Every structure is written in C-alpha cells, then in structure tokens.
Amino acid sequence: MNHVTQHLRTALQLAELGLPAMPLRAGKRPFGNCTACTRSVCGDRPHMLAAGPCECPAPCHGWAAATTDPDILTSPAWAKAWRQAAAVAYHPGGAALTVVDLDNADAITWARESLPATKTVTTTRGEHWIYLGTMTSHNGVRPGVDIKSAWSYARWLGPGTGRMALLPDVVRALAVKEVAAVASAPTAVVVPARPGDAVCRHRTPTYLERGIAMGEQRITEAASAVHATVYRTFLAVLSAHGWCGCLTENHIGRLFTAAQEKGESLRNCEDAWHNARTKLGM
Predict the structure, then answer these.
(1) Section 135-146 average pLDDT
(2) Mean pLDDT of the chain, nearest integer
(3) Is the pTM higher than 0.70?
(4) Which one of 9, 106, 172, 216 is at 20 to 30 Å from 223 when CA atoms are compared?
C-alpha cells in the first residue's frame, strides 16, 4: 500500500468515527488549497470566519479543511494534497475533543501529577492526552504544553491507550491564565524601512497615531472572527505605515496587547504579524 492510499484510508476511517480529517504536508503544516492560503500566508487559520467552514473555495485550509464527508476527502480537489501528504490530522474541536499536547518529559511528569488520567497517544517528542469536551485552543499554556481543540488540528498518531475522561476544569483554567498573562510587546519584531525611504512619507505624526488607534479599536470591537480581524488589522497597519521605518516597539506592542485582550496568544500575534509582513513582501 503506497502512502497516498494509506493516508487517505486513515482519513476515511477517522471520518467514519466522526473525527474531521485532513492531509498534512511535510513539517506538520496544512495545505493551502486556495490562493489566499498559499504558503500559509493566512496564518494556517480560516481567515473569513471564526468557526465553521471557511468561505474560501472548498476545501480550504487549516482546521476548516477537516471534514467527515468521504466525497470531499476523495474529491479531485484533494487528489494533489493526498499525493504530497506526509501525515493525516484531525480537528479535535469538531469531534467535541480536546488534546493536551505534551512536548517533553517534564510536561508529561506535570500532567501525571496534575491531570486526571485519560486516553493517551505517544508522539514523537511526548504525548497527547485526549479529553472529551471542547474549549478554545491555546499554545504555550505551560512550558511544553499546548491545548488543541476548537480552531486547531492535531496529527493523528493512532488510537492510543486508556479510557477517555471528561475535560477537567484544571485544563480550562490553564487557558484562562494564559490569556490573562498579556505581554506588553512581542519579541524581536522589527519592521525594516524600504530601501530609499530616508524621509517619512507621513504628513504628520498624528497620521501614524490615528492609524494605530484605529487598529486597536478595530481589534477591540471585533465581535467574532478575532483571528481574521487581527491578521487583517496587522496587514492594514503594515501596508500604510510599515515601509517608512516609523513603527516602534511601542506601536506594535499596543496592537499585540489589544489582540491578547481579545484572547489571542502571544504566539498567535507573532504568527499573524509575520504572515502579514510576508504577504507584503517585507
């Protein structure tokens, strides 16, 4: 059995179990199935809606591409992705599950001391502890610990062992603590000036201040699709103010703080900033 048949068969088996499945390319990254998602410029997240299928031409990208529909999994639109696939992933939140991703031995020791026993899957570097219940996904809630549930995907590494327990409050509390720990500024985010732009093109400093304030307001007032709003706001700010070298760490920190107060992690902010710069060719 070649890898194409094996990966597709695994995805179809997951779909039968109610686990929305999708192919992964090398590096455990999703495929970009539309122009807007090519090379992960959308941040590997559906950038049109906060939940449910993305509005890009189906199937889209990231967790929103995961499906239990065998007709989609075997469709011509996915044929190339399966030929290039290195693994299969699933959307835990779409199956009412939460994966606590433990990346090292210290994280595993902490879990064994702090969390109720549940179904466990061995990974390359650690373990996945899988609970019944859904929550918002967060990375870095503790050293070596990520939470993958809604708006996320996890690599399928087998059925695991043990009996699945209900999602405990201690795991939900980790995400609350992670959101509350808002960093004042990102690390090592630099916006280079475009060659030849020795003089700022802004008419007055007020123009830049207005742009940052509007960005903060746009993020703060987002009632849904926060991931999308943050990425688009970063893109707009960089497009208008990123080429002349006037953006400072203070300006960027204000945008990151607004995003984190809406529930985005620092890592998500940095990813969105990086992807916006990549989109603009910075």
Answers:
(1) 86
(2) 79
(3) no
(4) 172
Convert the pLDDT of each residue in 106-136 to its tens digit: 999 999 999 999 999 999 999 999 999 888 7
3: left (phi over 0), alpha (psi -120 to 50) or beta: alpha
The CB-based long-range contact list for 42-48 (8 Å cut-off, 24+ gap) reads 42/231, 42/275, 43/227, 43/231, 43/268, 43/271, 43/272, 43/275, 44/271, 45/151, 45/227, 45/228, 45/231, 46/151, 46/227, 46/228, 47/227, 47/228, 47/231, 47/232, 48/225, 48/228
Q: Residue 45 in contact with residue 91, Cβ under 8 Å?
A: no
- How far apart CA 282 and CA 273 sit, in angstroms, is 11
Please give the pLDDT value at position 189: 46
